[in-house]
Specification:
The complex is a heterodimer of chains A (about 100) and B (about 475). Chain A is built from 4 helices and no strands. By secondary structure, chain A is mainly alpha-helical. Chain B has helices at about 5-25, 30-55, 60-80, 85-110, 125-155, 165-185, 190-210, 215-240, 240-265, 270-275, 285-290, 300-310, 320-325, 325-340, 360-365, 375-380, 400-405, 455-465, and strands at about 120, 120-125, 310-315, 345-350, 375, 390, 425-430, 450. In chain B, helix 5 (about 125-155) runs parallel beside helix 7 (about 190-210), helix 6 (about 165-185) packs antiparallel against helix 7 and helix 14 runs parallel beside helix 18 (about 455-465). The longest helix of chain B has 29 residues, at about 125-155. The termini of chain B are far apart. The relative contact order of chain B is 0.09. Classes of the chains: A mainly alpha (about 100), B alpha/beta (about 475). At the A-B interface, helix 1, helix 2, helix 3 and helix 4 of A face helix 1, helix 2, helix 3, helix 4 and helix 8 of B.
Chain lengths: ~100, ~475
């Protein structure tokens, strides 16, 4: 009997939870705020679904209901992607060691 | 157009890059590289999506335009936002992820052909369950984050809003969501789908309004986790590995942060969610006690004198420092102390601030090197060997009652052993109790000198007196 592809996806999901568990425990507490902003940015990979939805409309009807939802979702996710990565970068630039202090 | 298999491989690559992005955060040195991994992963995912659809019609130009509009907005916010406002920003971003998840789920429901999920009215059962879970969790994340945002921003009062039967109502609505999903699967009715989304919005609001201001670190982490699970739900619907991996990563990350925050307050996750903490404590009897006990108070001159003659000083910052924007003045003060060969370190309690790691970012912004900043467990033993503890904007996290009085609501919470220092300088506006609504014993100790003033003003005055 063949295995349902859903089971494979579920396996990836569960294993990723474990990876996340171990990786996040090793994050230093002083970087917990950047951790939150970067997880924010990466979870906006949901933009993939938004793009599919937006491009799904037939060429005659670019703005049918479901692609409109897609377009809005693109804007929302893009704010998050750019905002999330850039603000993380901005924060990480500020973390300096003692030696760098005297320019 | 590239094959489905090839694009699946690329999505896997982008998922791995996201793992590396989080891995990089294990130390500040590797973190910047980690962030680039994350950006690379995102670019791969987006480009592969375009290539796999291969539909380069007019709609593509709209997609790019909307992408750039969002991107410009995001970049603008990222550069403009002050570091003290990070908690609000993160809450705001969570709400966007949530809403995006809802919209993608709606789009998939209305146009399942585009996603290979069947046709309208006959969507594959598994996909339907996945997308309704994605939509429900996304909607809860959205409205919950909006409330968190409003509370953090101060637009809405930070005090808990509670009413009779609240938990019962939440339970009822929670069950309602499952019943709706069940009927949705049976009937494939669009109306039920809309009701599901609306009820989920409502649940998000009801879930967050009873939670008080200082529990916000838990709330933000929890919503972080939810946004991950929503993304994972959508990932299952779209059969997209990158989204599933990311959703799982973000989901567990937020869950771990919530756990760390709860532990740092010695509170169970359930009691935080049920909310109402800090509102119902009868502080009247305690206020009488306050009036009777003698308090030593001093001015900037005394503080400067004490610190000048110390050989080691530990700074304990809290949310009050962020509110007063005193971090830059604080840094100036520390510079002066260091010039006099005084050893200065910073002690940070995990729940200082309104989100995990908030204080660290603020200190980093004020150019405090991160290797002078220590977490509770790393520095707690040093208080006994230090001359001065300078508490600025923190309160409950220094209260020795947590160690001594089993009746206290914060008993068992890990606290900084500030009282073990030879002398304690406590910058505070008044003797009012902290968030937990209890009196801080530290105020009345013989070795405590209270500095009643705004944190920023006091620090600036001390700087002047250090010359």
């Amino acid at each position: 009997m063949e295995i349902d592809p859903f089971i494979f996806r579920l396996s990836i999901f569960i294993l990723s939870i474990f990876i996340g568990y171990y990786v996040v425990w090793s994050v230093t507490p002083s970087l917990h705020t950047p951790l939150m902003s970067v997880t924010n940015a990466i979870s906006s990979v949901i933009i993939v679904g938004a793009i599919i939805a937006a491009l799904a409309g037939s060429s005659g009807d670019i703005f049918d209901v479901s692609s409109i939802f897609g377009y809005i979702a693109i804007v929302l996710a893009a704010i998050n992607i750019f905002g999330g990565f850039l603000v993380t970068q901005r924060m990480l630039q500020m973390y300096k060691k003692k030696k760098d202090k005297k320019k | 157009m590239i094959s489905a298999n090839l694009s699946a491989v690329f999505y896997l690559v982008s998922g791995i890059l996201f793992i590396l992005a989080l891995r990089g955060l294990s130390s500040p040195d590797t973190s910047r590289k980690g962030n680039y991994f994350g950006i690379a992963g995102m670019i791969i995912a987006i480009v592969v999506t375009f290539l796999s659809i291969g539909n380069f019609s007019t709609s593509l130009s709209y997609v790019i335009i909307f992408l750039l509009i969002g991107g410009a907005l995001g970049a603008f916010i990222a550069f403009k936002i002050p570091m003290t406002a990070m908690p609000e920003l993160v809450a705001g971003f969570h709400s966007l992820v949530g809403l995006a998840a809802v919209f993608v789920a709606i789009a998939a429901f209305l146009n399942p052909e585009a996603f290979n999920l069947g046709i309208v009215g006959d969507i594959k059962l598994a996909s339907l369950i996945e997308m309704s879970i994605g939509a429900a969790v996304g909607a809860i994340t959205f409205s919950g984050s909006i409330i968190a945002f409003l509370k953090l921003r101060g637009i809405m009062s930070g005090s808990p809003i509670t009413f009779g039967g609240q938990h019962f109502l939440n339970l009822l609505l929670g069950i309602g969501i499952f019943v709706l999903i069940f009927y949705l699967c049976k009937t494939q009715s669009t109306n039920i789908f809309w009701i599901l989304v609306l009820i989920s919005f409502l649940v998000g609001i009801l879930l967050i309004i009873p939670i008080g201001g200082a529990d916000m670190p838990v709330v933000i982490s929890m919503l972080n986790s939810y946004s991950g699970w929503a993304a994972a739900g959508i990932g299952f619907t779209l059969e997209n590995t990158a989204l599933i991996i990311t959703g799982a990563l973000v989901g567990s990350s937020g869950a771990i942060l919530s756990y760390i925050m709860c532990k740092a307050m010695n509170r169970s996750f359930v009691s935080v969610i049920l909310g109402g903490f800090g509102a119902d404590n009868s502080t009247d009897s305690k206020k009488d006690k306050q009036d009777q006990k003698p308090v030593k108070s001093g001015n900037a001159e005394d503080a400067a004198f004490l610190m000048k003659n110390a050989s080691s000083v530990i700074i304990v910052p809290g949310y009050g420092m962020a509110v007063a924007q005193a971090q830059h003045a604080l840094r100036e003060m520390v510079d002066k102390l260091k010039k006099n060969d005084i050893k200065v370190t910073y002690a940070i309690h995990p729940v200082a601030g309104r989100m995990p790691g908030h204080m660290n970012v603020l200190l980093a912004e004020a150019n405090v090197p991160y290797d002078e900043v220590f977490e509770l467990e790393d520095i707690n033993n040093d208080f006994a060997n230090s001359d001065v503890a300078f508490v600025i904007g923190a309160n409950d996290v220094t209260n020795p009652v947590a160690k001594t009085d089993p009746k206290s609501p914060i008993f068992g919470m890990p606290v900084l052993d500030v009282e073990k220092c030879k002398s304690v300088l406590f910058v505070k506006r008044s003797l009012s109790p902290g968030y937990a609504g209890i009196d801080n014993e530290l105020f009345y100790k013989d070795n405590t000198l209270m500095l009643f003033a705004d944190a920023k003003k006091m620090t600036e005055d001390i700087v002047k007196n250090l010359d």
